[in-house]
From TrEMBL:
Keywords: Glycoprotein, Glycosyltransferase, Membrane, Transferase, Transmembrane, Transmembrane helix. This is Core-2/I-branching enzyme. One of its GO terms (cellular component) is membrane. GO terms for molecular function: glycosyltransferase activity. Signal peptide: none annotated. The chain crosses the membrane at residues 30-49. It comes from the Eukaryota. It comes from Medicago truncatula (Barrel medic). It is a single-pass type II membrane protein. It is found in: Membrane. Coiled coil: none annotated.
Length: 399
């Protein structure tokens, strides 16, 4: 057997590729010319595209994952190594959540806003909401979760919109379960692109068009999320939530959210974090501790999994400034043009902490570097305020 050993295997393959079909016709001098030509071409290319000093691998031969002048971004970097090893469930959960967030694309031609009402029974402000919705058919849908008794509806927009409901106890996980039930029902309609949770004491403070554009022309969800270092914030954290939920990630926030479709979907996909809160964040825990999942699950979940995707404030106004256990409730005599205008034009959101000094952190309502008014809805209002509110909405162009 004749042993052929002229060129190393790699070079031989290269020559075969270059020589292509007409290899057999080429004579040795032609080969040399071709080789010299290739070498010249590479030298010329290296001269025209010199390697950059800060990113030496970013050259003609490595355009993939190469950013112009990018320091340290020359290769497609592998994800950073975790300081803590993820549990199996955690890895699975992250994969599903990240894929939903990455591949989600808006598909409807006329997107709708889903208004989801969480109420014990009949909605006292149905007439006001009717005025709000009138003339905007096709741009909204209504869902009602009545946890105590079947509501009596006066507006055609609400008739037939009750979903299956279960009893809800304040501060218990059943509250979060009702929120999930509303989201699941509203997700059945593919045109629903933004989901707003409202209570029976909520009112709109802006006109429909303003609300619609505000919600649909932004890419974020309005989920309240902040650090409360006091006893009613971090004081509610229990180490049993480890390893998945660490104290540094624990957040607090108002339950009245408004969210994008992809965020509603990841809540449907989540059982890991939901169960952590279901079992370890509840009232009457050991040591007289009270934890309320409706104030911690979503603020913590989004802070951990898509912090840049949420605005960190709620679009539902509430007045905690009196410093009492419950927020201020507005009566008919409180309702003035001045008050309604004040609420509608607030552009900073306060976060009250429960530490000994009752620190208030006031932050501008800012997205993409531009300030905006914070609120579209408000609570808590007594039913007696309805007629005055309808009067304001019908007769003023301010809102
Ligand atoms: C910020 O600006 C970008 C680009 O203009 C836009 O795509 C995005 O939706 C904006 N974000 C918000 C929250 O409005
Ligand atoms: C919300 O807060 C998180 C965590 O503090 C931050 O990463 C994120 O950028 C904030 N969102 C906006 C829109 O500023
Ligand atoms: C608007 O204002 C006029 C005059 O004050 C009043 O007569 C009318 O009832 C108001 N409209 C509503 C819907 O309240």
């Amino acid at each position: 057997m004749k042993k052929e050993f002229a060129w190393p295997q790699f070079t031989k393959n290269l020559l075969i590729m270059v020589g292509s079909r007409h290899r057999s016709n080429l004579k040795r001098p032609t080969w040399i010319i071709v080789l010299v030509f290739i070498v010249c071409f590479f030298l010329l290319a290296a001269y025209i595209y010199p390697p950059r000093s800060s990113a030496s691998t970013c050259s003609l031969f490595n355009s993939q994952g190469c950013s112009v002048g990018g320091v340290g971004r020359t290769f497609n970097k592998p994800p950073p190594v975790q300081t803590r090893e993820f549990t199996d469930k955690e890895t699975e959960s992250r994969v599903v959540i990240n894929e939903i967030l990455k591949y989600y694309a808006v598909q409807s031609t006329v997107p709708k806003v889903a208004f989801m009402f969480l109420t014990p029974g009949t909605l006292p402000f149905e007439k006001l909401w009717h005025t709000f919705f009138q003339g905007h058919e096709g741009k909204f849908s209504v869902y009602v979760h009545a946890s105590k008794e079947k509501p009596i509806h006066v507006s055609p927009y609400f008739v037939g919109r009750d979903i299956h409901s279960e009893p809800v106890t304040w501060g218990r996980i059943s509250m979060v379960e009702a929120e999930r039930r509303l989201l699941a029902n509203a997700l059945l309609d593919p045109d629903n692109q933004h989901f707003v949770l409202l209570s029976d004491s909520c009112i709109p403070v802006r006109r429909f068009d303003f609300v619609y554009n505000y919600l649909l022309l932004t890419s974020v969800s309005f989920i309240d999320s902040y650090v409360d270092t006091g006893p009613h914030g971090n004081g509610r954290y229990v180490e049993r939530m480890l390893p998945e939920v660490e104290k540094k990630d624990f957040r607090k926030g108002s339950q009245w959210f408004s969210m994008k479709r992809q965020h509603a979907l990841i809540i449907m996909a989540d059982s890991l974090y939901f169960n952590k809160f279901k079992h370890h964040c509840r009232p009457n825990m050991e040591g007289n501790r009270n934890c309320y999942s409706d104030e911690h699950y979503l603020p913590t979940f989004f802070n951990m999994l898509d912090p840049g995707g949420i605005a960190n404030w709620s679009v539902t106004y509430v007045d905690w400034s009196e410093g009492k256990w419950h927020p201020r409730s507005f009566r008919a005599r409180d309702i003035t043009y001045k008050l309604m205008k004040k609420i509608a034009y607030i552009d900073e959101s306060p976060h009250y902490t429960s530490d000994a000094k009752r620190t208030v952190v006031i932050q501008p309502c800012e997205l993409n570097g531009s300030k905006r008014s914070c609120y579209l809805f408000a609570r808590k209002f007594y039913p007696e305020t309805q007629d005055k509110l309808i009067h304001f909405f019908s007769n003023s162009t301010t809102f």
